[in-house]
Amino acid sequence: MKQYRLTVEEDQENERIDRYICNVLADLSRSYIQKLCDGGSITANGRTVKPSFRVKPGDEIEVIAPETVIPDILPEDIPLDILYEDDDVLVVNKPKGMVVHPAPGHYSHTLVNAVMYHCHDLSGINGVTRPGIVHRIDKDTSGSVIICKNDAAHISIAGQLEEHSLKREYIGIVTGVMENPSGTVDAPIGRSSNDRKKMAVVAGGKRAVTHYEVEQQLNGFSLVRFSLETGRTHQIRVHMASIHHPLAGDEVYGNGKKTPVPTFGQALHARILGFSHPRTGEYIETFAPAPEYFGKFLNLCK
Q: What stretch of H or E contains 154?
């Protein structure tokens, strides 16, 4: 059982209590908070309240949330697009729409479930829900993800991520025609103060650096290559939105501009992954072809 005690601040007056708690406790979804309210597990000043209750400065809020029970993570026979594999590492081309590792609401049909079926041994450093996982990409971003089969490989690849020596090149379609053919966005990223489920460029955030180069100018869009110097949550999506060129199809950071073909989320693909092999030191580079919709999109925008 988790228990949270919150005091409403001056700038949060008249906010619905479900929205207020969701913004303060980013790990709880609004729908889950509403269920807790309906079950009497949320009180304001000692009295149970409905999700529509409006808070005011000084209100003492108490949230009692049952501990999450993590179900067994099971192998699933899901096809993998393997780009590279040996006894230490596996690189796969993750499809758009697949979650990398199990989490509340997604305990099956993830990349981890598929990899567990394919591999008998995986590194255990990140626990039972993330075996072999060193890094991740968003559900609606496709492309290269590296999986480690043992702890030694995991430590090596994690070190390369920390040192920024792991090569990660993305390709994406952004809205608008970019004036500069290349450039760098060096802007700190942190949790948005307006919506705790979103990231934003904020003072005091973690340093984030994205390099970009325009590959093709289109009718109302641009095909852009990105290389990451850092790896913050939603980094490319936040940085492109901050310079007024959000990724096409991005339902969170986008501007709502209609796309010529459905993208089902941001038009972003992790195309190249390069690393020093954890056992031999040899440089390995993999290439993941862009999804089919990229080509259709480009043809319709010429």
A: helix 151-162
